[in-house]
């Protein structure tokens, strides 16, 4: 227990210090929401990596590797990597305007409703973001609670309310605080999973021994459950059907570049090149995080053939730490998981609060607000939403990694075409955007509720048909809407319209 | 395992190739505000 408390104290100290420093930097609305569009490469890589590695990665992915075998590498590790690989395509265009949008819904407004005084489209997108990110923060809180309570023996409810304190500390300073604490979190996550992976590697005798065991084991995932087919854990499809694995891969990959928090991340760096290079650096860093997670997830099957009854696969990492790692490594790994949860939750909490306050409230009620007033109200929104997410987590939700798949799938269905066609097709217009968002989200929910194996593919196809019909039946968009994304030197009227939108 | 790891590695290679291409496009544009510096991976 001594090591756990010592390491935790150091961690809390740093978070408070980083937050206090960031409070001084974040003065304007731009600083608070997006780091003033001037985040450098190292900080960009640090914060992107930490946001990428969530509880779904550190707990959910080893859980799926444990229960479904190497197929989880294709579904999650490669799926997220492919999604990340597509992000620079967004960055290349969205960072072009001289005055880029501050938030994702604001980008949608700039691109599709530049002349509206109150943008309904911005409000719809803001509301969808609010719902999605509230659920995602809720997943992070639950994941943290599961791990913390299992390892330390502290009650789950106390653990999740403790987590509230962490995300408050890191979110109050706005984007600069998130970015600074995330960079430390990236270092901690990397060290933690490398150490835990090293312990599992040593205890199991290495990857070839792990694969040998996986190829013959039939031990049920949960004690008392059905036995696994021999060799299923080493087959590329694992326990999934082709359709299910394909759907997971597509949701994780194509959902990523259209997810609002990733699109917003492309707006934060100081220029397009930094936005592109941050993804390259992140994908490189992820090798050192994902590889140990693969060893942990697959190696766990060798060390703990079945999970005790009454627990889900989300408990495999805490069980492993509890039973097999020395205290100091356990403490560092626990911090790594904590860091993964905090770094994702704080970023999503900020998006959640910003979308509700800035994109819905200020937009619909056409309020003018000072920088100081903005910071005060946004902090209050952060506080209230964080409390709501923690209260909702008292009853833990579904499987952690699967929750991400559903929400990423939903975001992808609603926003994929709007983002990509908006950035790369001049003819894409307002009617197309409404049709894409509404048809995409509704058909995703319907396809999911009807039990289709590939709801994302169905939703995007339906949405594409709707968008094409809507675009060709309505007028071309005004030049002011698309010009900033296609040319470096925009016309005087476009400059005026863009400045007016930022000034409102 | 081999197939799964190969898919992951191919995606990483694709990412590097795509990023390099896009950085080259920024350089070709010559727009300093976008990050054109005269060298493909130099950003300021």
From TrEMBL, chain A:
The keyword Isomerase does not apply. One of its GO terms (biological process) is sodium ion transport. The chain crosses the membrane at residues 5-20, 41-65, 71-92, 121-146, 158-179, 186-204, 237-255, 276-304, 324-342, 377-394, 400-424, 431-447, 453-473. InterPro entries: Na/Glc_symporter_sf, Na/solute_symporter, Na/solute_symporter_CS, Sodium:Solute_Symporter. One of its GO terms (molecular function) is symporter activity. It comes from the Bacteria. It catalyses: L-proline(in) + Na(+)(in) = L-proline(out) + Na(+)(out). Pfam families: SSF. Its main location: membrane. This is Sodium/panthothenate symporter.
TrEMBL record, chain B:
Keywords: Membrane, Transmembrane, Transmembrane helix. The keyword Transmembrane helix applies. The chain crosses the membrane at residues 6-24. This is Uncharacterized protein. It comes from Lentibacillus kapialis.
């Amino acid at each position: 227990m001594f090591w756990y408390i010592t390491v935790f104290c150091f961690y809390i100290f740093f978070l408070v210090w980083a937050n206090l420093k960031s409070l001084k930097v974040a003065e304007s609305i731009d600083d608070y929401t997006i780091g003033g569009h001037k985040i450098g490469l190292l900080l960009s890589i640090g914060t992107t990596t930490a946001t990428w590695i969530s509880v779904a990665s550190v707990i959910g992915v080893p859980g799926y590797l444990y229960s479904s075998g190497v197929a989880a590498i294709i579904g999650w590790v490669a799926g997220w990597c492919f999604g990340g690989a597509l992000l620079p395509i967004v960055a290349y265009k969205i960072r072009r305007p001289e005055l880029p949008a501050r938030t994702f819904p604001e980008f949608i407004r700039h691109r599709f409703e530049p002349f509206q005084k109150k943008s309904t489209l911005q409000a719809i997108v803001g509301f969808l973001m609010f719902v999605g990110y509230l659920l995602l923060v809720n997943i992070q809180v639950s994941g943290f609670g599961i791990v913390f309570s299992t390892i330390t023996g502290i009650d789950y409810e106390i653990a999740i309310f403790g987590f509230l304190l962490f995300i408050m500390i890191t979110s109050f300073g706005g984007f600069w605080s998130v970015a600074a604490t995330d960079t430390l979190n990236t270092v901690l996550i990397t060290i933690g999973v490398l150490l835990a992976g090293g312990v599992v590697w040593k205890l199991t005798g290495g990857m070839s021994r792990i694969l040998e065991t996986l190829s013959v084991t039939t031990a049920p995932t949960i004690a008392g459950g059905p036995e696994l087919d021999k060799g299923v854990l080493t087959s590329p499809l694992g326990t999934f059907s082709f359709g299910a694995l394909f759907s997971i891969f597509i949701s994780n990959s194509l959902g990523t570049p259209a997810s609002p928090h990733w699109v917003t991340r492309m707006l934060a760096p100081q220029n397009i090149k930094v936005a592109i290079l941050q993804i390259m650096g992140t994908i490189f860093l992820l090798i050192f995080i994902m590889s140990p997670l693969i060893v942990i997830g697959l190696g766990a099957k060798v060390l703990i053939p079945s999970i005790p009854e009454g627990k889900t696969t989300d408990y495999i990492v805490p069980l492993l730490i509890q039973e097999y790692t020395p205290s100091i490594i356990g403490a560092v790994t626990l911090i790594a998981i904590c860091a993964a949860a905090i770094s994702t939750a704080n970023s999503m909490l900020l998006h959640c609060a910003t979308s509700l306050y800035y994109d819905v409230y200020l937009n619909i009620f056409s309020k003018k607000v000072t920088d100081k007033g903005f910071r005060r109200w946004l902090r209050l929104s952060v506080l209230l939403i964080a409390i709501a997410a923690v209260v909702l987590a008292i009853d833990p939700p579904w499987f952690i990694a699967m929750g991400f798949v559903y929400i990423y799938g939903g975001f992808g269905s609603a926003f994929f075409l709007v983002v990509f066609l908006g950035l790369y097709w001049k003819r894409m217009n307002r009617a197309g955007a409404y049709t894409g968002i509404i048809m995409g989200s509704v058909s995703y929910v319907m396809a999911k509720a009807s039990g289709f194996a590939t709801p994302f593919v169905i939703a995007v196809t339906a949405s594409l048909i709707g968008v094409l019909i809507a675009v060709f039946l309505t007028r071309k968009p005004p030049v002011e809407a698309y010009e900033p994304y296609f040319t470096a030197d925009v016309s005087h009227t476009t400059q005026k319209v863009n400045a007016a939108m930022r000034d409102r | 395992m081999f197939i799964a790891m190969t898919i992951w590695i191919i995606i990483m290679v694709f990412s590097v190739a795509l990023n390099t291409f896009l950085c080259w496009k920024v350089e070709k544009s010559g727009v300093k505000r976008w990050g054109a510096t005269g060298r493909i991976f130099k950003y300021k």
